[in-house]
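To: structure desk
From: M.T.
Subject: fold request, one chain
Message: Could you run this one when you get a chance? Sequence is below, nothing fancy, just the single chain.
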Amino acid sequence: MSKGTKYLLVSLPTNIALANDHDEALTAMRSAVGMDNATTVPFKIPEFKIGTLDALVQQADELSKLGSACEGVVGKVGDSLRTILEGDEEKISQSKTVNDKPLDQYLRSFHWNKVKYRADKPLGELISMLQKEVTSIDNDVKNKYNQYNQVKTSLTALQRKQTGNLSNKSLTTVVDPSLIIRDSEYLETHLVAVPNTITKDFIKTYETLCAMIVPRSAVKVDADDEFTLYAVTTFKKTGQEFIHKCRERKWTPRDYKYKEGGREEEQKEVDKVAKDERKVWNEALRLGRTAWGEAVMAWVHVLALRVFVETVLRYGLPLSFVCGLVKTTPKLMKRVRNSLDSSYSYLAGNAFGRDKKGRVQKDDSSTSADMQAAGHTGEGGEYSAYVCYEFEIN
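Reply: Done. Structure tokens follow.
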């Protein structure tokens, strides 16, 4: 999927051609767009059941909001894929297909999905169907992505326990059980992680932290690049005071209880969560791929409905129009729009005029405001003499 591509859906009345012919009108549109500026292909839109004028105006507003919702969902699903695939642009691009086709191929060969969205249904019913579908896609992806995040967080926490330093990692594989006093009525063993820079201070002072610390009981258990782990024996009566005093000295007391088979159990838990993470990752990736294609498909069908409704409102009945898909770049889009404005400004009646050099000159803001209130504006709220919708899918 190529980046930096912009699309424009343009609908024009067939009477822009002298013979009022569909194919000639498409040729005229191509000529107006300019071969050097963009490529233009036919975009087929079926004729739908048309209700009252009031209903059409309301549906135009609903479709505008639904189009924004679709764009948002496509973006969110794309972000989820990017996270799952760790920003690998090649894999992300390969995952973004619509009906097993690259995006551009799907758009250029677009046909209304009459099985999924029956064209003989009322417009209101089709809009409601698309709204429910987009909401469902959004919720499904959100739930699966949250599930993946939870499993991944659990795995990361378990792995950190195995790979961290002695102040936070699991001690199951570090501590020799014979160093720990068990089943004593009076004595207990405390494990303390001491920064390597102050171990000398620890050895000199640990016996004086509080009463009832067994003299010379400190035993070095293990060391890494940051901390040294010591085992110290105290009477149970002063154990909590010893822990408190350690924290005051920036020594880290470690909670450890010996458990038979603890090492094997801990590794089994890591293996299980790692397996779960891989399973949910695959599910999230599959869903993300499917959901992105379905969300794009829904968005393009919404755009088709927007073009149809606006065409009826703008050009009236009986319907005789041609719709084209214009593919260009962000840099050339302004030139395309200016060229179309120049060729078809007359469709707007008095809304557009021309200056002394013959260049299209849009009327004052009050005209645009009136047109916007009536629903006759393109993307961005700017009035256009013809029906057009600009979009970009990444």
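Reply (cont.): The mean pLDDT is 90. Let me know if you need anything else for the meeting.
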